[in-house]
Amino acid sequence: MIVSTTKGKYMKYTLIALASASLMSTAANAGTLMGEVRFGGVANGQSNSTEYKVEYSNTFAGLVNYGAELQSKQAENAGALGSKVSLKAGPVLPTVVGFKTAAYGEVGKSLAAGNNFEFWGAGVKAKRDLYGPVSINAGYRHREGFGGAADTFVENRLNAGLGYALNDSTTVGANYYRTTGTLRTDAIGVSVTKSF
Fold first, then answer.
1. How many CB atoms lie within 10 A of CB 12?
2. Is the pTM of the predicted complex or chain greater than 0.90?
3. Structural domains of the chain, with CATH
4. How many CB atoms lie within 10 A of CB 2?
5. What is the rounded distance in angstroms from the CA atom of residue 97 to the CA atom of residue 99?
6. What's the CA gap between 9 and 3, in Å, rounded?
């Protein structure tokens, strides 16, 4: 990624520091840490962008899933850097026909030059081991801004992909994302997930 602003360089270093700190702190607390890079503009007529995401998730008392997510996105070689921070929680759901399912609600804040606002969201996701170390996953998420100018922010995202378990605690994956709403984007993400 080419970062065109000083602010962008600091955000990149902040993401690296957050991922490192989360990795060290979660080792004692268990849970899962996922890092992903998404390459946008894979459909004709879209501007290219690169997005970085770090997500931590865990389960409390076998009843509640919870987590936090930090995303940072910038148009290719230029433009303002935008970030979103969110907290998530939802009930632990049963496995259905081999699919591990999860549902969650979230609240968060969008941080962008001159365009800060709060948002809420809800989503579902499912994962199933396919064959040996290969798994499939799919999900849907809806987000909406609230309060003032943020009322115009709406995001609906579908994703599907594959994972490959390198060992019992590390999985690499690739996902395709289709987002509609305020903006329409198609992106491909590559990720590493570490379970503790």
1. 16
2. no
3. 6-195 (2.40.128)
4. 9
5. 6
6. 6
Q: Which residue has the tokens 């709060």?
A: 118
CB 123 within 8 A of CB 141: yes
| Other CB atoms within 10 Å distance of the CB of residue 92 | 15
Tokens of 165: 């378990």
C-alpha angle with apex 134: 125 to 24, nearest 5 degrees? 70
Q: Report the amino acid identity of residue 39.
A: F
State the residue for tokens 């997500």: 55
Question: 145: which 2 tokens?
Answer: 């801004």
Token readout for 45 is: 């007529």
- Per-block mean pLDDT, blocks of 10 residues, the chain (196 long): 46 56 52 92 63 93 93 73 90 91 94 82 95 96 82 90 97 95 88 94
